[in-house]
Amino acid sequence: MKSLKYLLQLIPAAVLLFLASCSVKPETIRIMSYNIRLSLVDDGEHNWNIRKPASVEMVKTLQPDVFGVQEPVWEQINFLLDSLPAYAKLGVAREDGDSLGEFSAIFYLKDKFEVLREGNFWLSETPDVPSLGWDAAYKRIVTWGAFKNKETENIFYIFNTHFDHLGKVARQESACLLIDRIREITVDAPVIFITGDFNATIDDPLFEPVKAHFLNVRQEAPLTDTISTYNGWGTYDGAPIDHIFYRGAKALSFRTVTDNFGVPYVSDHYPVLAVFEYE
């Protein structure tokens, strides 16, 4: 009788736990990667001053929760922050670890997410200081952050980067270093996203260490495409080089953003947008 009485006492707690587990709903998150094309070059009719209103319109239209940008310099970072007040950013410039040179910054909805941790490292043999790696033409950087949804308390990490366009060894070593650092930083974190311009197509052997731990959303999403991400202002059509990888989430959709937001091209790269479900 005592054991029966004890069992009956446990039933309400078990019911509560069951109801609590049933009430937890997966949430969706919209992740974008965008090589914005730096403003320090003369692109004629595609100059940044002509394109920048379209970049803002694109973000407002697509409404990503988080997006990684490649190539912006300080003036572009400030413009996006001023024009998109719902977002805050993480990241430093690659030349001096402050404001000089290009960023691989992460923008996020500041009212929706809390930053738990953040950091940067360089793709080089000395990743903790601004440095040039292997045979790379330029210094390359990774910016990362750990975020918590303020309402659901779900946590995820995101890493954003831009691999070198010339250094083949640098790209290979960068992929290995990226995975090693993710392993060190995240430990057993279940949900991780990687965004970036990798200057390489997905069949390149450099992605082997990435594929060993992460899925490519372009290949996994039930709604997807294989449109070239580098467009060269309409002069190029080849295999995509901008990618989003993930772990611990369910891919719902992926698309290469080719829409006209006021100009034919928001950049010489098309942004890519993925929607995921995670808990």
Provide key terms for this protein:
279 residues; alpha+beta; Deoxyribonuclease I, Chain A; 6-stranded mixed beta sheet; 28% strand; globular; disordered N terminus
What count of helical segments does DSSP give?
A: 6
Order of helices and strands: HEHEHEEEEEHEHEHEEE
Low-confidence stretches: 1-23
Mean residue pLDDT:
93
The portion of residues assigned to helices is: 25-40%
**CATH architecture annotation name:** 4-Layer Sandwich
Sheet having the most strands? 6 strands, mixed
Q: Could you walk me through the main structural features you see in this protein, from its secondary elements to its overall organization?
A:
The structure is a single chain. With 279 residues, the chain is of the alpha+beta class. The chain has one domain: Endonuclease/exonuclease/phosphatase (Deoxyribonuclease I, Chain A, 4-Layer Sandwich), CATH 3.60.10. It has six helices and twelve strands. It has a six-stranded mixed β-sheet with strand order 3-4-2-1-12-11. It starts with a helix and ends with a strand. The model is unreliable at 1-23 (pLDDT under 50).
